[in-house]
Amino acid sequence: MRTHLTWIIPLAIVLLAAAAFFGVSLYRQLTASVQVTVAPGSGAPVEPAPPPSAEVTEQVAARLREAGLNGQPVLGDTAISGHMQRLAAGEVDADTLLQYAADLERLNRFSTEQGGSIPTAFWDVRSKEMEANGWDEYTVVRQIAVPEAEPYLLLLAQGYGRFLRFKAAEAAGEDTALDAALDIFAAVAVYQEKMSPQPEPVDDPAAGKGRADAMLMVWQSLVAGSTRTNPLTGGPLFSHSIF
């Protein structure tokens, strides 16, 4: 028995290590569509932007309103009031806010076309962790509102759309959170196959387990939420929890 254990235990350790490596590697590929490359802030003081005219201020507020932002914070979002305070204080300029509104509209349009209609306030957040790293919602949204991010945005819209259907039918007892979560898992499987197609079958248990682990990590990030920083890549990541 001891003879068997002397080689079984090291082999098991090697297989688990290999599976972890494959899982982390694949997870990086699967989440690459939402990883942004915002460099940490230097901490150096930024010279305030000159105050805009009343006409420009009104235009910016109108564009943010058209983009779907809340007038006042609801669930920790910055909201129009917060952006306008920054504008008046010179912490952000009008061009940045106008670009932000355009990017938000693109995200809104894409998610609506996919049946998800993700609330604009979902993106309108600047957490303490983001601030500590020198990130802001303007730069992060600018980098996620691009064609390269569409595969993950599609998955996110599908997940949010399924969540809305669950909430609509929950009271009548016609749907359950488990069914919704499993449907989202199926969407993650499709996303995984698109981002990292299954190779020809090979006799490699570690690689198979790695793919399964990666799928579970993406699904968990979508359903249960994730931190603002992806621990595997070090890049900022929106908390995508919908339950």
Describe the 3D structure:
By secondary structure, the chain is mostly helical. It has one domain. It contains 9 helices and no strands. It has helices at 2-30, 54-66, 79-89, 94-113, 128-132, 137-144, 150-170, 177-195, 205-223. α2 runs parallel beside α4 (94-113) and α8 crosses α9 (205-223). It is elongated, with a radius of gyration of 22 Å. Residues 7-37 and 226-232 have low confidence and may be disordered.
Task: Indicate the overall shape.
Answer: elongated
Biggest sheet statistics: none
Average pLDDT metric = 74
Give the class from helix and strand content and strand pairing.
mainly alpha
Order of helices and strands: HHHHHHHHH
Rg over alpha carbons: 22 Å
- Count of individual helical segments: 9
Indicate the low-confidence ranges by residue numbers.
7-37, 226-232
Q: How large is the share of residues in beta strands?
A: under 5%
What's the end-to-end separation, in Å?
A: 48 Å
**DSSP helix fraction:** 55-70%
Count of spatially separate domains: 1
Please tally the β strands and state the result: 0
